[in-house]
Amino acid sequence: MIGNNSSVTEKLSPQWTNFPLKQLQGKAKYSPTVLMDHYLIAVVHESKSKEDPESLDKKVFLLAVDLRDNSIQEAQVPDSMFNNEVGYTLTKYKDNQIIKFGGVRCGRPHGDVIQMTIKSFKRIFCFFFPYLITITIALSVKCVEIADNSNDDDDPRLHGATAQIHNDHLYVFGGTNERGDKRSELWSFDLSYFSLIKISSHHK
């Protein structure tokens, strides 16, 4: 016999944990996150100025949070590919790569596709009795623009879209274009041959 709703709700209520992330200067904006093995990956936009946290002059870096022990590593990423952007998607690709699509740069949506290759963020544990020594391997990120769709009227320039990867194809659905129109199109971008096609479009 199941008890009353209040007792069930109390037992099943979620318990939140506040991860001890690094102290960021001013205000920071976190991107969508990607899960890679037991690491949670996020791109952080942090103001370089403590006096003016809303300043457009920001540094951009990638955070890798080890979900086993909440330890954190970070690496600088090129400002030119991320700075002051919102509304982009991050999708895991292969073992050590993330694909970034779209977003708003300088007030205008774009359809650029960026391939981020993440070099090792593993750690080595060495046991020298009675001490356990942890050696951290530096985290590094290489960003390569594999498609610039900003100047082609027929290509998607979107922010707030959703994206998934299957069989080396990036599938992008929805989002808002540069005119503020909410779209319901499905696009496919071939990550092997860098070709783009529109799969379907549904508008009333």
Tell me what the structure shows.
The protein has helices spanning 5-12, 79-82; strands at residues 28-36, 39-47, 58-66, 72-76, 89-93, 97-101, 104-105, 108-109, 113-119, 123-128, 131-136, 140-147, 162-166, 169-173, 185-190, 195-201. The longest helix is centred in the N-terminal third of the chain and has 8 residues, at 5-12. By secondary structure, the protein is mainly beta. The strands form five sheets. The protein has a four-stranded antiparallel beta sheet with strand order 1-2-3-4, with no helix packed on it. The termini are far apart. The relative contact order is 0.12. It has a single domain (25-201), classed as Kelch-type beta propeller (Neuraminidase, 6 Propeller).
